[in-house]
Amino acid sequence: MTVKLPAWFEAGFPHIWNPYSQMKTAAPPLPVARTDGVRIHLADGRVLIDGIASWWTACHGYNHPHIRAAVTKQLEIMPHVMFGGLTHEPALTLAARLAGILPGDLNRVFFTDSGSVAVEVAMKMAMQFWLNRGERGRTRFLAFNDGYHGDTLGTMAVCDPGEGMHSIFTGLLPPQPMLDLPVDDASTAAFDRFLDEHHHELAAIMVEPLIQGAGGMIFHDAEVLRRLRAGADRHGLILIFDEIFTGFGRTGTMFACEAAGVVPDIVTLSKALTGGTMALAATVASDRIFAGFWSDDGAQALMHGPTYMANALACAAANASIDLFDREPRLLQVSEIEQGLTDGLTPCRKIAGIADVRVMGAVGVVQLKKLSDPKALQRACVEAGIWVRPFRDIVYLTPSFTMTADDLARVTGALRKVLAA
Ligand SMILES: Cc1ncc(COP(=O)(O)O)c(C=O)c1O
After folding, report:
1. Ligand 1 centroid vs 57 CA: distance in angstroms?
2. Which of 20, 112, 116 has most ligand 1 atoms within 8 Å of its beta carbon, as the pocket-test mutant?
3. Residues 308 and 352 in one domain
4. Residue 265 and residue 268: Cα distance in Å, rounded?
5. Best probe residue, ligand 1, of 123, 149, 240, 251 (max atoms within 8 Å of C-beta)
6. For the stretch 259-288, what's the b/e string if a residue is b when 16 or more beta carbons lie within 10 angstroms of its beta carbon?
7. Among all residues, which ones are annotated catalytic?
8. How many structural domains comprise the chain?
9. Distance, CA 96 to ligand 1 centroid (Å)?
10. What is the per-residue pLDDT for 294?
């Protein structure tokens, strides 16, 4: 089907560089005119139900009136002011609220503007924690196969090189140890052995709790997180949970770490932090980590400060998003979505070529035995009226928590039909 492209697309597209795209061969992106609830309105008049909530950010749906009102109000008062030497109410209120809803003593919030940078800051914090104690040999991060932590150089070094996106850099980044998650006796023994032998080299252990997202939407049990905590505790190590994907209800509890009853030393947040409206991220440290920087020596300070750190509009959006978690039954909605995904996706098991179907919270995954052309699958889904972004051998759904049962059934029904075709 040929669609007429708007004039702004014709004029601007030759000047844009798109994400994760071979610009020479990639099909052009779909021009969007507006969003509304769980729907994306394309410039050519077609309307798609968004099955993935804009990379898992729009947890309350698009254009939520409460977030819009909060951002509009903040825009009148002060869109932004530098955070070095100045501070403001939206940021401090948000910091206090995050400390309040996170478990344990995760009490100190450092704001940045993207998930990758939040992870970079977590890594820098961990390394400097040891440097401040005079331990200069702790420069490595234990990460896990199938993990994904971002696209910047430091975070790429802790992504699984086989995850595909950054494999061209293999061998060129600071090498980091990478193990299988301790999911069974053998992998737990290997993890314990590695810590026994190498703990003194490690700045931290890092993991995406419960779901390894962009590395393949792979689930693990809460017990795995308890094993990581126990291993870290045995050696006094820092444990970083990257909750950029899982935070704010996605796996069924407000934060994935709660399901395991485990408190990490540092947690990273972004994605749904602003309900999908603005760029904002946070690296939240425990009292112990913060105490490692508390000194009369200026050289022991954390030397980091992005220009748009704690942007007031973004903090207002995040505060409004947390209001919605307080006022509306979001976690109940997540459990209803979980049931809807289970009901809607389980029948895919009967379709030829399907390897696995799994659901956790508001994450549903259909894994194919082989997915040779994810873009063709995406195009077929667009024709069926839904927006998804299959990758590697999976197609996943991470809908807004506010998606109605009818819309969810439309999305899963359309996906089933496309997969069966
Ligand atoms: C677990 C995790 N960490 C880090 C990132 C990077 O976040 P950003 O794309 O905002 O840099 C992502 C993004 O998908 C993620 O899922």
Report:
1. 11
2. 116
3. no
4. 10
5. 149
6. bbebbbbbbbbbbbbbbbbbbbbbbbbbee
7. 20, 148, 242, 271
8. 2
9. 23
10. 98
Structure tokens at 76: 């009148």
Atom of ligand 1 nearest to the CA of 119: 4
Residues with CB under 6 A from ligand 1: 114-116, 119, 148-150, 208, 213-214, 242, 244-245, 270
- The per-residue pLDDT for 335 is 98
Q: In which domain, by residue range, is 181 found?
A: 65-327
User: Which whole-number Å values give the CA distances from 82 to 246, 247, 284, 286, in the listed order?
Assistant: 29, 27, 20, 25
> Looking at residue 2, what is its pLDDT?
63
Looking from the CA of residue 279, the nearest atom of ligand 1 is: 10
d(CA 376, CA 371): 10
So what's the pLDDT on residue 167?
Answer: 83
Residue-level pLDDT at 162: 75
Q: What is the pLDDT of residues 28-56, one digit of tens each?
A: 999 999 999 999 999 999 999 999 999 99
CB atoms within 10 A of CB 406: 9
Instruction: List the structure tokens of 205.
Output: 């252990």
pLDDT given at position 14? 96
Instruction: Give the pLDDT of residue 35.
Output: 98
Coil, strand, or helix at residue 87? coil
Q: Is residue 2 part of a domain?
A: no
My answer on whether 145 and 286 are in the same domain is yes
Segments of the chain scoring below 50 in pLDDT: none
- Shortest CA distance to 49 belongs to which of 57, 58, 40? 40
Closest-CA residue, ligand 1 atom 9, reads 115
Atom in ligand 1 nearest the alpha carbon of residue 246 = 1
* Among the listed residues 420, 392, 408, the one whose alpha carbon sits nearest the alpha carbon of residue 164: 392
d(C-alpha 98, C-alpha 125), whole Å: 19
CA of 149 to the centre of ligand 1 (A): 6
Cα–ligand 1 centroid distance for 117 (angstroms): 9
Inter-CA distances, 273 with 67, 110, 113, Å: 12, 14, 11
Among 295, 327, 359, give the residue marking a domain's end.
327
